[in-house]
Amino acid sequence: MNYHYTAHNSLLQKSINEEGFFKGYASVFNVKDSHNDLIMPGAFTDSLKMNLNIKLLWQHDQKEPIGIINKMTQDEKGLLVEGRLLLDLNRAREAYSLITNQIIKGLSIGYTIVDYFIEKQTRYLTKLNLIEISLVTFPANKYAEINYIKSEDDYLRLKQSLERANRILVGDTGIEPVTSTMST
């Protein structure tokens, strides 16, 4: 059984927070990569059903795990992942620095091929067993990207907005703010 890698470009500016959390696409469907592979929608369905414990590796090196993948879902665009760099590891801290300085911009998947077909010199991958996800220097697919970061600032802004809304309600109506839910 051959082990395959497909790298995907990531736009990582403002995509990782101080705790190392990130969210983005590890694979994008219907895009031919530099290896002439094209991953089809639904290719990860069986892998996702297996509740895999997918690791985040550095440059596909199995000796260099740098994080964990907390959640994976497949949507119309591709394989959406949420993960976290383990910042107590030296290599993960280095990766964090490279990401935040926009030097490393790639995500890549490691997989085995279960089913495929070839048409016009392109290999259409229809069923894959996902093995790992890596941060890489040179991605094969330029359209996958990390596009959201959980940040303390997001939570702080939400909290401040809710506090402002409560002040407006209390100031305008004299009604005490709701602090718990009621059941019927």
Helix content: 10-25%
Sheet/helix structural class: alpha+beta
> Strand portion, in percent?
35-45%
Q: How confident is the prediction overall: mean pLDDT?
A: 80
Count of extended strands = 9
Radius of gyration, CA atoms, in whole angstroms: 20 Å
String of helices and strands: EEEHEEEHEEEH
Distance between the termini: 57 Å
**What general outline do the C-alpha atoms trace?**
globular
Task: Please give the count of helices.
Answer: 3
Key features?
single chain; alpha+beta; 3 helices; globular
Write the layout of secondary structure elements.
Layout: E1 4-9, E2 21-28, E3 37-39, H1 45-49, E4 55-58, E5 61-74, E6 78-85, H2 90-100, E7 106-119, E8 122-136, E9 146-148, H3 152-173
Parallel strand pairs: 3-8, 4-8
Antiparallel strand pairs: 1-7, 2-6, 2-9, 4-5, 5-6, 7-8
Please describe what this structure looks like.
This protein is α+β, with helices and mostly antiparallel strands and 184 residues long. The protein has one domain. It is 21% helix and 41% strand. Strands 1, 2, 3, 4, 5, 6, 7, 8 and 9 form a nine-stranded mixed sheet that branches. Mean pLDDT is 80; it is low at 10-14.
